[in-house]
């Protein structure tokens, strides 16, 4: 009896859904796939609602777990997503592979987004940083504030953690070895690996997920780590004696791409344009601990000053670090990952 | 009634021969028909994907290529392969060392106690792999239960490095794999006639000699099954080494995942899969020969 | 050694009497053995002496304690108290592998991962015999049990009878001076069992080894043994030669257990015995004076007459119920004194006419 009713309800909803997306209906729609969870909820409130209002379209949502989804959709010939969120260098990678639509000049012309955060087929939307985080209990007096300090196991003894990936470890190693920020790219890989070799024994954990990096800091499995600022911030907010410094941070951006062959690519293009505007970009900081990719957003007055100071893309913080060269990594990821794997296992 | 009818009935020719043969053929046909779904299942779920896997590894966008295999010559892959097999061997060996006494004890107990022991052995099966793995972190990490306890007791001054390395990975994997060894071993031990041990003692064998010379050879089939299960499953392990290995323990499965998720390189991932498959089959073949030979010639 | 042997009450030596060969056999003396499992007494103060070279059968129903006694001898059951000596040596405290006795198990307990020859060689290897000696003795043992040429066979390739022979050969190949057998023939079918009974007996005579044989099959016990110890409720009921046991059972249990019997109540007063109010003649006066005792009848000792028999014979009136044809004999079931059933067995002769049922 109840089973029957459920089926009927489900059928009714299915019918409704097909009507909404059907061509006979006046309102148009795009489908955006992002990381889901609190992250996507914040995007909905900060951006998607504005897009619906501004363009008079409906924004349908889905979730993605990475580049593989996009590749599969593009390979299928008819992607169901019109706009997809990806992590920093993956956008450049997908562009290099030819899996994205080139962005319109209007989108790329939106002021405020630095050139280092966009390519021909992708544009940054959220900024976070790979920062140095440390335990206040381990270092109560003098605080580490540079990669030189991270490498200085005499002054700052204790186990460390780095991400299990060559990306931004090589940069940090070169900075610790005295390479100036503006001469980092192209990376001197051998020099960077030699430098990493110096602290290899002190790196207790090569973390592979954000949750893991937070856990080892919280449990004091390590005393110092290079982690994403949001992860360290959230355990600090919960009361863990953990601090972060934006000094020499690696500024990273998540980004939009339009899968090659997307059905509503023109609408998607318009949506990106709307979401890239400074005043819209700024809204994201109100809902989640990430900064806007558009640096002009900090001049809109939308973000309260105390919140702004905690964001990696705040001009003061951004100035302390440098932006990851996503194009470089898109070119070299496979080769350098092999090198790095070998380094880890040697 | 004609004369011919009479002859048939009178039995100068074998009676019902044709009909009986037809019946036998029908039965055979039905048996063949019954196995058709199995053939399709094996074909669709095993042969086709494996063939496809192999095809992907040798056929790229520019036609046939061995590139996916030559890239595996990079020393990083060699190291990964060594680590993978090293870990699988170590885990299998430890599972045998730990599992044998457990299975033996359970097989010697009365049914009630035996089922209690087996319950304990199986208990980990009902907990999520992730939960178990994180639980090991709580126990093993620098400020974990074991290190705190040892330091409080004054047994050590600096914490032992129990996790985020090969040691921690091994501990976690042994814990997960143990039931796979104990179950078939226990099953084979249950069937061993304990009179054989009495006979051995009666013939003059000390308990130790009887155990090694008579009991252990009887367990080889169950032990072999368990060893192969544990070994093959260990080769494909992913989650535990990733969480307990501290990023140092690189398994073959991680390379496959990375090839797929990060680079989207089906060819590379397929080649990795083919190599693992071939190596696994090779090892299985050797194991089979070893255990088969020792089971057949135990007394020589 | 001989001084420790005591006469256990038998008046004559068994049919296969031979000089006790102390080189190949030892006497066994069991004294006051007690074994309890909780409230259950498996062995209740058991004492028995087994002569050197004797074939002694422990006979009893299941649960009687006969197997427990054998297992105590083998060392697999630890008794509560008592003493067991082989020759003059107390062995109760020795572990099984130091007792140096051969044993044939009920299910043979052959090692399935070894060939026939390897099974036979096992006890020799444990005794560090040389390779040539092992080969030689395995060969001879196979000859002994008529399995020459089967040394390379796997255990699973053997028939039940062949396995039985291998088990026998393995139990004696290291020349133990005592051989224990735990219902070794119970798994064989009837024909094979009878054949193996002869075989086992032949082997015993050939080796002269002191043998303790456990069975619940009284026919087997009667066929094979020099002497039989009937055990029930953890106690030895009677130890005697087969013939004496059959003809002169000393307890009601033994009488009922050995052979086919029917019992009728009798009243005893003094030396006279009354059956259904009629006095009957007995071969010997009753052993004790209880008023109510039992008369044990064996079907083969009775006869059916249609006419009034000789007044000199013991007789009673009865009604024929049924004749059962059993090939070599015919059993006639009768009711006497209203509701008591007895049976009469006689040799089958084809020319004979039987009294009709109901008469």
From TrEMBL, chain A:
Chief location of this protein within or outside the cell: periplasm
Listed transmembrane segments: none
Keywords: Periplasm, Signal, Transport
Pfam families, per database record: SBP_bac_8
Biological processes, Gene Ontology terms: thiamine transport
Family: Belongs to the bacterial solute-binding protein 1 family.
Protein name according to UniProt: Putative spermidine/putrescine transport system substrate-binding protein
Organism, scientific name: Roseovarius pacificus
UniProtKB/TrEMBL annotation, chain B:
ABC transmembrane type-1 domain span: 81-287
Highest taxon, organism lineage: Bacteria
Primary location group: membrane
Pfam families to which the protein is assigned, alphabetical: BPD_transp_1 (PF00528)
GO BP terms, alphabetized: transmembrane transport
InterPro entries given in the database record: MetI-like (IPR000515), MetI-like_sf (IPR035906)
PROSITE patterns: ABC_TM1
Transmembrane segments: 31-55, 81-104, 116-142, 162-187, 223-245, 266-287
Transmembrane helix among keywords: yes
Protein's membrane topology: Multi-pass membrane protein
Similarity remark: Belongs to the binding-protein-dependent transport system permease family. CysTW subfamily.
Protein name per the record: Putative spermidine/putrescine transport system permease protein/spermidine/putrescine transport system permease protein
From TrEMBL, chain C:
Subunit structure: The complex is composed of two ATP-binding proteins (PotA), two transmembrane proteins (PotB and PotC) and a solute-binding protein (PotD).
Keyword annotations of the record: ATP-binding, Cell membrane, Membrane, Nucleotide-binding, Translocase, Transport
EC class name: translocase
EC number: 7.6.2.11
Source taxon at top rank: Bacteria
Pfam families: ABC_tran, TOBE_2
Stored PANTHER family: SPERMIDINE/PUTRESCINE IMPORT ATP-BINDING PROTEIN POTA, SPERMIDINE_PUTRESCINE IMPORT ATP-BINDING PROTEIN POTA
Species, as recorded: Roseovarius pacificus
Protein name: Spermidine/putrescine import ATP-binding protein PotA
GO MF assignments: ABC-type polyamine transporter activity; ATP binding; ATP hydrolysis activity
Region listing for Disordered, in residue ranges: 1-21
Catalytic activity reported: ATP + H2O + polyamine-[polyamine-binding protein]Side 1 = ADP + phosphate + polyamineSide 2 + [polyamine-binding protein]Side 1
UniProt-listed InterPro entries: AAA+_ATPase (IPR003593), ABC_SmlMolc_Importer (IPR050093), ABC_transporter-like_ATP-bd (IPR003439), ABC_transporter-like_CS (IPR017871), Mo/tungstate-bd_C_term_dom (IPR008995), P-loop_NTPase (IPR027417), PotA-like (IPR005893), Transp-assoc_OB_typ2 (IPR013611)
GO BP term (any one): putrescine transport
A Gene Ontology term for the protein's cellular component: ATP-binding cassette (ABC) transporter complex
Domain ABC transporter: 28-258
Family indicated by similarity: Belongs to the ABC transporter superfamily. Spermidine/putrescine importer (TC 3.A.1.11.1) family.
Function: Part of the ABC transporter complex PotABCD involved in spermidine/putrescine import. Responsible for energy coupling to the transport system.
């Amino acid at each position: 009896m109840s089973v029957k009713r459920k089926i009927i309800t489900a059928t009714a909803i299915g019918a409704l859904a097909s009507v909404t997306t059907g061509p006979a209906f006046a309102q148009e729609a795009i489908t955006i796939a992002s990381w889901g969870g609190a992250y996507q909820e914040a995007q909905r409130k900060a951006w998607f609602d504005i897009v619906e209002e501004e363009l008079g379209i409906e924004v349908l949502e889905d979730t993605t777990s990475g580049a593989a989804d996009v590749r599969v959709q593009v390979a299928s010939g008819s992607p169901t997503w019109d706009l997809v969120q990806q992590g920093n260098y993956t956008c450049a990678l997908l562009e290099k592979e030819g899996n994205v639509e080139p962005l319109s000049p209007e989108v790329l012309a939106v002021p405020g987004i630095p050139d280092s955060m966009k390519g021909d087929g992708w544009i940054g939307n959220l900024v976070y940083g790979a920062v140095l985080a440390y335990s206040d209990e381990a270092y109560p007096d003098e605080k580490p504030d540079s990669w030189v300090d991270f490498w200085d196991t005499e002054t700052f003894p204790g186990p460390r953690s780095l991400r299990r990936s060559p990306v931004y470890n090589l940069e940090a190693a070169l900075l610790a070895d005295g390479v100036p920020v503006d001469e980092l790219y192209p990376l001197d890989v051998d020099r960077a690996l030699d430098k990493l070799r110096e602290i290899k024994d002190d790196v207790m954990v090569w973390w592979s997920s954000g949750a893991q990096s937070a856990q080892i800091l919280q449990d004091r499995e390590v005393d110092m780590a290079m982690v994403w600022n949001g992860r360290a911030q959230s355990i600090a907010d919960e009361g863990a004696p953990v601090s972060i410094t934006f000094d020499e941070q690696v500024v990273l951006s998540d980004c939009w791409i339009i899968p090659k062959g997307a059905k509503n690519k023109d609408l998607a293009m318009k949506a990106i344009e709307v979401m890239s505007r400074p005043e819209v970009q700024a809204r994201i900081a109100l809902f989640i601990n990430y900064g806007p990719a558009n640096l002009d957003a900090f001049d809109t007055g939308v973000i309260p000053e105390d919140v702004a100071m905690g964001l990696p893309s705040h001009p003061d913080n951004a100035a302390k670090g440098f932006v990851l060269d996503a194009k470089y990594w898109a070119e070299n990821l496979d080769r350098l990952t092999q090198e790095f794997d070998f380094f880890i296992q040697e | 009634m004609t004369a011919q009818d009479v002859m048939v009935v009178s039995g100068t020719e074998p009676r019902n021969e044709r009909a009986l043969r037809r019946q036998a053929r029908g039965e055979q046909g039905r048996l063949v028909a019954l196995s058709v779904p199995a053939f399709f299942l094996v074909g669709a779920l095993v042969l086709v994907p494996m063939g496809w896997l192999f095809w992907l590894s040798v056929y790229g966008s520019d036609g046939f290529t061995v590139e996916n295999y030559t890239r595996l010559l990079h020393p990083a892959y060699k190291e990964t392969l060594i680590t993978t097999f090293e870990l699988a061997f170590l885990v299998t060996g430890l599972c045998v060392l730990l599992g044998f006494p457990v299975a033996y004890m359970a097989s010697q107990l009365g049914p009630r106690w035996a089922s209690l022991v087996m319950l304990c052995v199986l208990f980990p099966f009902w907990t999520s792999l992730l939960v178990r793995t994180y639980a090991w972190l709580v126990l093993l990490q620098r400020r974990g239960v074991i290190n705190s306890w040892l330091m409080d007791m004054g047994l050590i001054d600096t914490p032992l490095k129990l996790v985020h390395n090969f040691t921690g990975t091994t501990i976690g994997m042994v814990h997960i794999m143990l039931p796979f060894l104990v179950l078939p071993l226990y099953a084979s031990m249950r069937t061993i006639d304990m009179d054989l041990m009495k006979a051995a003692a009666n013939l003059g064998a000390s308990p130790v000699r009887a155990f090694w010379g008579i009991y252990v050879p009887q367990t080889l089939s169950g032990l072999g099954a368990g060893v192969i299960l544990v070994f093959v499953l260990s080769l494909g392990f992913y989650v535990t080494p990733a969480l307990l290995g501290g990023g140092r323990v690189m398994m073959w499965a991680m390379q496959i995942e990375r090839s797929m998720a990060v680079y989207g390189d089906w060819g590379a991932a397929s080649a990795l899969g083919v190599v693992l498959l071939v190596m696994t089959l090779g090892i299985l073949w050797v194991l089979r020969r070893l255990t088969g030979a020792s089971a057949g010639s135990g007394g020589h | 050694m001989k001084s420790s042997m005591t006469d256990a009450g038998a008046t004559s030596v068994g049919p296969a009497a031979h000089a006790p060969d102390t080189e190949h056999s030892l006497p066994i003396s069991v004294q006051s053995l007690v074994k309890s499992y909780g409230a259950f007494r498996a062995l209740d103060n058991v004492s028995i002496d087994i002569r050197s070279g004797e074939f002694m059968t422990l006979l009893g129903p299941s649960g009687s304690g006969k197997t427990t006694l054998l297992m105590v001898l083998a060392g697999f059951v630890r008794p509560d108290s008592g003493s067991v000596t082989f020759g003059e040596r107390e062995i109760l405290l020795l572990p099984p592998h130091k007792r140096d006795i051969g044993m044939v198990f009920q299910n043979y307990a052959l090692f399935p991962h070894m060939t026939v020859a390897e099974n036979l060689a096992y006890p020799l290897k444990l005794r560090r015999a040389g390779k040539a000696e092992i080969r030689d003795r395995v060969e001879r043992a196979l000859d002994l049990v008529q399995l020459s040429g089967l040394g390379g066979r796997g255990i699973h390739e053997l028939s039940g009878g062949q396995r039985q022979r291998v088990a026998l050969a393995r139990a004696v190949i290291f020349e133990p001076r005592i051989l224990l057998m735990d219902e070794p023939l119970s798994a064989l079918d009837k024909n094979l069992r009878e054949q193996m009974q002869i075989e086992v007996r032949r082997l015993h005579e050939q080796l002269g080894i002191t043998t303790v044989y456990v069975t619940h099959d009284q026919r087997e016990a009667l066929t094979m043994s020099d002497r039989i110890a009937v055990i029930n409720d953890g106690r030895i009921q009677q130890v005697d030669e087969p013939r004496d046991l059959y003809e002169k059972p000393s307890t009601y249990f033994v009488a009922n257990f050995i052979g086919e019997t029917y019992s009728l109540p009798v009243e005893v007063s003094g030396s006279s015995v009354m059956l259904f109010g009629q006095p009957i003649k007995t071969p010997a006066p009753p052993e004790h004076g209880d008023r109510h005792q039992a008369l044990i009848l064996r079907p083969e000792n009775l006869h059916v007459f249609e006419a009034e028999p000789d007044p000199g014979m013991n007789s009673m009136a009865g009604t024929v119920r049924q004749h059962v044809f059993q090939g070599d004999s015919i059993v006639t079931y009768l009711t006497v004194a209203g509701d008591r059933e007895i049976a009469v067995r006689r040799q089958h002769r084809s020319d004979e006419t039987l009294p009709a049922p109901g008469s």
